[in-house]
Design a protein that fits this description.
Helices cover 64% and strands 4% of the residues. By secondary structure, the protein is mainly alpha-helical. The protein folds into 2 domains: 193 residues, Serine Threonine Protein Phosphatase 5, Tetratricopeptide repeat (Alpha Horseshoe); 46 residues, no CATH class. The protein has a 3-stranded antiparallel sheet with strand order 3-5-4. Strands 1-2 form a two-stranded antiparallel sheet. A hairpin with a 7-residue loop joins strand 1 and strand 2. Helix 2 packs parallel to helix 4, helix 3 packs antiparallel against helix 4 and helix 6 runs antiparallel to helix 7. The longest helix has 22 residues. It is extended. This is 26S proteasome non-ATPase regulatory subunit RPN12A. Belongs to the proteasome subunit S14 family. InterPro entries: 26S_Psome_Rpn12, CSN8_PSD8_EIF3K, PCI_dom.
Length: 298
């Protein structure tokens, strides 16, 4: 069994399993490296805290794990040969995947960006060394969604171009691509309705942020286009399901609006907005001055 497995893994491009023949059972497991054992045990404690939503403990253990991972020679960027390379790479990838999801749970976008870029080489540079992770496309799609929320559209397309063509058929990647298309087209209703059909539970946080951005955009357009709207029309435009949701939104985000007698009045907001005069004479004088300077240079 051990010999056949070694040959199968070698043909498939994987390094030999850390098994050697010997003993009554035909094989003996090579003793695990003490550092790998320490990381594995600490990661077990992290997972227990993660499942229990004990985020302070998670952050504390994660910091310790990241320090310990620096002692593994096989990890990026060096990728040095090691008898435990497969185990080291696999457990490190698992740790960074959990770190990314933890940053979403704690709503820390800066931590998300740091942890994602530490995780990314385990997806792009270890193919053929360790098996692919079932969390790869959900996390890659999550990063695309983050870039969309932060309006980093150029980076969104750069990350998308780096994915294999087959990835575009994955529901998580397709979700982010369709959202970006709807957002660019101004089809805000499709963006808001997509909140109800997320492909992965971790997407809810960024979808809520995107929905808020879209609602604020719609609200800004509405108060410029109308003096008032009925409550029902305002709910429909902003995609709220109840009067209470609309009322809470107005109170928190637009205190200059007024809900009265079944209508939402924007006139108060318009009246309070100061009109800025265009300094026409100043602009004319500056333009003429620039023209004279150009004429002098020529």
């Amino acid at each position: 069994f051990g010999h056949r497995r070694w040959n199968r893994e070698r043909r498939g491009g994987l390094p030999p399993s850390p098994l050697k023949r010997g003993g009554r059972g035909g094989r003996v497991v090579v003793p695990m490296d003490p550092q790998l054992t320490e990381v594995t045990q600490l990661f077990g404690r992290f997972e227990a805290a993660f499942v229990g939503n004990d985020f302070p403990t998670c952050n504390n253990l994660l910091s310790q794990l990241k320090v310990l991972l620096t002692k593994f020679p096989s990890l990026p960027p060096s990728f040095q040969e090691s008898p435990n390379a497969v185990q080291e790479l696999t457990v490190a990838r698992d740790i960074y995947e959990h770190a990314v999801v933890l940053s979403v749970k704690t709503e820390d976008q800066d931590a998300f960006e740091r942890d994602f870029f530490q995780l990314k080489p385990y997806y792009t540079d270890t193919r053929g060394i360790i098996p692919s992770s079932p969390q790869e496309y959900p996390i890659m799609g999550l990063n695309l969604l983050r870039l969309l929320v932060q309006n980093r559209i150029a980076e969104f397309h750069t990350e998308l171009e780096l994915l294999p063509t087959s990835a575009l058929d994955n529901p998580c990647i397709k979700h982010a691509v369709e959202l970006e298309q709807s957002f660019m087209e101004g089809a805000y209703n499709r963006v808001l309705s997509a909140r109800q059909a997320v492909p992965h539970e971790t997407y809810v946080y960024f979808m809520d942020l995107l929905a808020k951005t879209v609602r604020d955009e719609i609200a800004g357009c509405s108060e410029k286009a109308y003096d008032h709207l009925s409550v029902d029309d305002a709910k429909k435009i902003l995609m709220f399901s109840s009067d209470r949701e609309l009322s809470d939104y107005v109170t928190e985000e637009h205190p200059d609006w007024e809900i009265k007698d079944g209508f939402v009045f924007f006139q108060k907001a318009k009246d309070s907005a100061p009109c800025k005069e265009i300094p026409s004479l100043q602009l004319i004088n500056q333009t003429l001055s620039y023209a004279r300077e150009l004429e002098r240079i020529v």
